[in-house]
TrEMBL record, chain A:
Gene3D superfamilies from the UniProt entry: 3.30.465.10
SUPFAM superfamilies: FAD-binding/transporter-associated domain-like (SSF56176)
Upper taxonomic lineage: Bacteria, Pseudomonadati, Pseudomonadota, Gammaproteobacteria, Nevskiales
Domain FAD-binding PCMH-type: 1-178
InterPro entries per record: FAD-bd_PCMH, FAD-bd_PCMH-like_sf, FAD-bd_PCMH_sub2, FAD_lactone_oxidase-like, Oxid_FAD_bind_N
UniProt protein name: FAD/FMN-containing dehydrogenase
Organism listed in the record: Solimonas aquatica
One Pfam match: FAD_binding_4
Keywords: FAD, Flavoprotein
PROSITE patterns (alphabetical): FAD_PCMH (PS51387)
Molecular function in Gene Ontology: FAD binding; oxidoreductase activity, acting on the CH-OH group of donors, oxygen as acceptor
UniProtKB/TrEMBL annotation, chain B:
NCBIfam families found in the cross-reference section: PRK07102.1
Entry's family note: Belongs to the short-chain dehydrogenases/reductases (SDR) family.
InterPro entries referenced in this protein's UniProt entry, alphabetically: NAD(P)-bd_dom_sf (IPR036291), Sc_DH/Rdtase_CS (IPR020904), SDR_fam (IPR002347)
GO MF annotations in UniProt: oxidoreductase activity
Protein name as it appears in the record: Short-chain dehydrogenase
SUPFAM superfamilies associated with the record: NAD(P)-binding Rossmann-fold domains
Top-rank taxon, per record: Bacteria
The species this protein was found in: Solimonas aquatica
Keywords: Oxidoreductase
Length: 432, 244
């Protein structure tokens, strides 16, 4: 099977029967007693898009535009279309996705099913806030039209519903008007976690996009130091994005280790570009720096990697995140790409949506077996004790208890699951 | 009004759709002929948004005579490019004893194509310019036990086009025979895929390029030319023993 069939973290080796659907008119074959799951671009890290022992409905050929109202910025399209393809069509006409995650290689169906968030959560909420309506195929062969008015409960369950409510065939989404293809803003170094929170509080009211990279190897007085970015869409020219690269093979030993990690983080923090106001970026460099390197996930070697992403409510955020960063730095694990973002108060309709007011920390860990899973369990415990939760799209090992405690609407959600749909993620958490 | 005009027959095919997206992005006018009207309309809407100057839908079913398509076309006017893409992979085992299956396979993969090539080739000649591009297959290069009904129908198409190309030489009309190798499309959904398989987008880029270059025959991806040469060179006494 291709690398795409194992989750972006490359931890799993599932056995799946794949049906590639040609378009939104094709009726998948549902056999009695079997379980099914839709898959988009496999950009989720763990097992939410994996269905070991079951069937996959591959939606990558559900890639037709249906209608675009260039006055209102309303786009209807099949669910397998990627945000990248949408940007290619709509940006020249002045429109951009209202919310985008850190890669443009995600499908609309995947973005809805994980209710993804971006650097503008404090301003725009999550992807689900901009879904006007969607068409959902259930295993009884009938299509449900879902929106805030029609089948609202199923609509709420499907947004952030991890593919468990059926197959999203198409959706109508609202885009945002933008001034142009450039981004304009500031990069600002901060020396510790307290400075991060100060910068965030000062910037959020004025900037639509805010995010921070943290040096997860720094400790002591420098704990939580990093680089803060704030930006907005802008007209005019922007520096061309750097040339695309590609990792053709998986190195037998990952070049990412404690030493290279420390060196990278230190250099990244001190690089001249880390402190530059009135900066301009090309939209690709600002939103999707990692998309430049195709198959960058192979960098972690044949054993794959975990990603950890948690949310901590505002009152506990400082203390809990400091505790996590201290633990990570002490472990010598952690990664180049630790990200901090403070969410806002806009709630999407999604029952299982991850974003909520508070601060989120996301980072990768090369898979070093028990050492890594032990660290992940400690981080999970801190998040949970602080009243937080983990993000399913990034998860490969959270406990059933933290899933239940982190997502209080789980009981309501369960009633909307399609009886023929399931995933490795769901079975892991339902039966553990 | 100087946009490129393209007629695609079998417009719902994955390979044809990928070609259509390339032409749409260049602002071409597209005429889509398909037997499945809702699918055809959905593809037309997509292509309009992707930049096509205009898209018209026509009905064509390879099981029926082509006259109604030709009549519809006479109202719209002849295109610069005709791409004949429809086809289907017959159940080889069934064709080995059921003659109606054999006839059906030939109707869809050979006879309907020859009818269209005859009538549209003539219309292009009358117009004095254009390209008639037809999707054949590497399977037509040598009959194999596993799919010689399909393969021989594609071989008929290739031989026919070779003659037509000669006849139309000097008329301003080029005839292109397209021979794809294994392509990952709905037609081949039940096959296990390996490194020999290509995506329809790759094949489509090759088709559009070959039309522009006025090629006569193109293998896609290009290396199939050499592989098929080797396969054709295998002497019959040896070939008959092989299981391909
Ligand atoms: C580099 C990188 C950066 C990222 N940054 C962010 C970020 O900033 N914010 C964020 O929120 N996420 C982020 N992610 C995660 C990513 O946005 C989500 O995992 C997203 O869901 C992936 O979309 P996909 O099309 O690949 O879906 P898949 O991974 O294929 O599937 C994800 C889920 O969606 C379901 N699904 C997919 N299509 C359908 C459908 N048609 N109908 C029903 N269910 C469906 C699947 O069943 C599965 O449960 C990032 C991922 C990467 C690799
Ligand atoms: N895939 C390969 O490996 C491969 C290799 C070499 C050559 N080819 C050739 O490439 C061409 C395109 O095929 P594809 O791979 O793109 O497969 P595809 O997506 O399955 O397309 C096949 C097309 O043929 C149409 N069709 C079938 N029977 C028809 C009929 N009776 N009347 C009208 N249209 C009919 C189908 O219409 P519906 O949508 O209505 O079903 C569909 O549009 C075919 O000629 C095929 O032989 C394919």
């Amino acid at each position: 099977m291709s690398a795409a069939a194992q989750g972006w973290g490359r931890l799993l080796h599932p056995r799946e029967a794949v049906q590639t659907l040609r378009d939104r008119f094709e009726q998948p074959r549902f056999a009695p007693g079997e379980h099914y799951l839709a898959r988009g671009q496999s950009r989720s890290y763990g097992d939410v898009a994996v269905n070991d022992g079951g069937h996959i409905l591959d939606t990558r050929r559900l890639d037709r535009f249906i209608a675009f109202d260039a006055q209102q910025g309303l786009l209807e399209c099949e669910a397998g279309l990627t945000l990248g393809e949408i940007i290619a069509l709509c940006l020249p006409q002045g429109w951009f996705p209202a919310v985008t995650p850190g890669t443009q290689q995600v499908s609309v169906g995947g973005a809805i099913a994980c209710d993804v968030h971006g650097k503008n959560h404090h301003r725009a909420g999550s992807f689900g806030c901009h879904v006007q309506s969607l068409k959902l195929l259930r295993s009884d062969g009938r299509v449900r039209h879902c929106s805030a008015q029609e089948n609202p409960a199923l609509f709420a369950a499907t947004i952030g519903g991890l593919g468990l409510t059926g197959l999203i065939l198409s959706a109508c989404i609202r885009l945002q008007r933008v001034a142009g293809a450039a981004m304009q803003g500031d990069s600002l170094r901060f020396a510790n976690l307290a400075e991060y929170f100060a910068l965030e509080a000062e910037s959020a009211p004025h900037w639509p996009y805010t995010v921070a990279w943290v040096d997860c190897s720094a400790r002591g007085a420098a704990l939580g130091r990093g680089v803060f970015e704030r930006a907005r869409h802008a007209a005019g020219a922007a520096p061309a994005p750097p040339r695309a690269l590609r990792l053709f093979f998986t190195p037998p030993l990952s070049p990412l280790n404690a030493l290279s990690l420390r060196a990278f983080n230190t250099l990244y923090y001190h690089r001249p570009g880390a402190q530059r106001s009135a900066q301009r970026w090309h939209w690709q460099s600002f939103f999707y720096p990692l998309d430049r390197i195709a198959h960058w996930n192979r960098l972690y070697g044949p054993r794959g990697f975990y990603q950890f992403q948690c949310l901590v409510p505002p009152a506990q955020a400082r203390a809990a995140i400091a505790q996590m960063l201290e633990l990570i730095a002490a472990s010598g694990q952690g990664s180049f790409l630790a990200v901090l973002k403070t969410f806002g108060g806009l709630r999407s309709p999604g029952l299982l949506s991850f974003p909520a007011p508070g601060t989120t920390l996301a980072l990768d860990f090369a898979n070093r077996g028990a050492r890594t899973t032990a660290l992940l369990a400690q981080l999970e415990a801190i998040a949970l004790a602080a009243g937080g939760r983990l993000y399913a799209a990034k998860d490969a090992c959270m406990s059933a208890e933290s899933f239940r405690r982190g997502y209080p609407a789980l009981g309501d959600f369960t009633q909307h699951i399609d009886p023929a749909f399931s995933s490795s993620f769901w079975r892991r958490l339902e039966h553990s | 009004m100087n946009e490129l005009r393209v007629l695609i027959i079998g417009a719902t095919s994955a390979i044809a759709q990928a070609c259509a997206r390339i032409w749409a992005a260049r602002g071409a006018q597209l005429l889509l002929a398909a037997r499945d009207a809702p699918r055809g309309e959905a593809i037309a809407a997509d292509l309009r948004l992707r930049g096509a100057a205009a898209v018209h839908c026509l009905r064509y079913d390879a099981g029926l005579p082509p006259q109604s398509l030709l009549d519809a076309l006479s109202g719209i006017g002849m295109p610069d490019i005709v791409l004949i893409a429809h086809g289907s992979l017959p159940d080889q085992a069934r064709c080995e004893h059921a003659l109606e299956a054999l006839h059906e396979a030939y109707r869809i993969n050979a006879l309907s194509v020859l009818e269209l090539a005859t009538l549209l080739g003539e219309a292009l000649r009358a117009q004095g310019h254009g390209t008639l591009a037809v999707i054949g297959s590497v399977a037509g290069d040598r009959g194999r036990a596993s799919n010689y009904v399909y393969g021989s129908a594609k071989a008929a198409v290739a031989a026919f086009l070779s003659g037509l190309r000669q006849r139309l030489h000097g008329s301003g009309v080029n005839v292109l025979t397209i021979k794809p190798g294994f392509v990952d499309t709905p037609m081949t959904r039940d096959f296990a895929k390996n490194a020999l398989w290509a995506q329809p987008e790759t094949i489509a880029a090759g088709i559009v390029r070959a039309i522009e270059q006025g090629r006569a025959v193109v293998y896609l991806p290009g290396w199939w030319r050499w592989l098929m040469l080797l396969i054709r060179l295998i002497p019959e006494p040896l070939f008959r023993r092989l299981r391909l």
